[in-house]
Amino acid sequence: MKIADILKNAKRTLFTFEILPPLKGGNFGEIQRTIEPLLEFAPAYINVTCHRADIAYRTNDNGETERYTAKKRPGSVGVAAAVKFKYNIEIVPHVICAGFTRDETEDALVDYNYLEMYNLLVLRGDKMKSDPVFIAEKDGHAHAVDLLKQIQNMNKGIYLNSEIENATPTCFSCGVAGYPEKHADAKSIEQDIIYLKEKVDAGADYIVTQMFFDNSKYFEFVELCRNAGITVPIIPGVKPIATVNQVDVLPKLFSLSLPKELENELRKCKTNEEAKNTGTEWLTMQAKELKKANVPAIHIYTFGIPDNVVKVCKAVF
Known about the structure:
Elements: H1 3-9, E1 14-19, H2 28-35, E2 46-48, E3 54-59, E4 65-71, H3 76-87, E5 91-96, H4 102-114, E6 119-123, H5 144-155, E7 173-178, H6 189-201, E8 206-209, H7 215-227, E9 234-235, E10 237-238, H8 246-254, H9 260-268, H10 272-292, E11 297-301, H11 307-316
Parallel strand pairs: 1-2, 1-11, 2-5, 5-6, 6-7, 7-8, 8-9, 10-11
Antiparallel strand pairs: 3-4
Helix pairs in contact: 10-11
């Protein structure tokens, strides 16, 4: 079932969450340890992230700088399929511009269509750490809206090669990302919402937000979107803080702010366990308020740590 239909037919605020493919060398057991404690809360669907290979640079014996792949994750197609067929649950794989050509994207989409995984989250993806700005792959997409258009073309039976045989139309339904505190590359929240409207006009069926820690940011964002003519469901994405250093890392990494009250409490924490407890209490408060406001779903970024998410779900769902 399409995510938009799941949201439309829901009679309550749904619970959804996101998992990361394990790093190369990891195995499916790592994912199971994240998923299985959360199944009792009847997640409506599970997102599976997609990651480009991490590129780094080193100096070779000739004194020249060379580029190499420093970190990989297993392919999201395989991980998504394994989760779907083991747990018989709706899966939403992420499809990203970063690190992929249009041909590589088309190949992945053919696989998802074959596996009957018709729900996708379409994202630009992150820039490489070594680059000052996002750089698209040669013959890749620079913007999520262009990737979305490629997917919509496939839904019409239009593939990259017009002479391809058996160009069967697909039936993908796509979500996109929204940023309550604006995307880091946007000049303003108003500009960011213009770009978001372009993605909705290009066929996005719903929006899931970047994490936020102040619910007022989400409610203000929804109002701005509605005023801009965006009518699709807007799902809040949230995360429980789990370590002491995240009080500094998360704002820098994701271009977001922490409420002063939360920041003050986290800075009092001496251990990661104290920080995790503080983060869990804060997210529980957030989630209860969001549920009371009848948001369509609460999407939790687990980062592979299920125990604090279980505590939140027990208190909220």
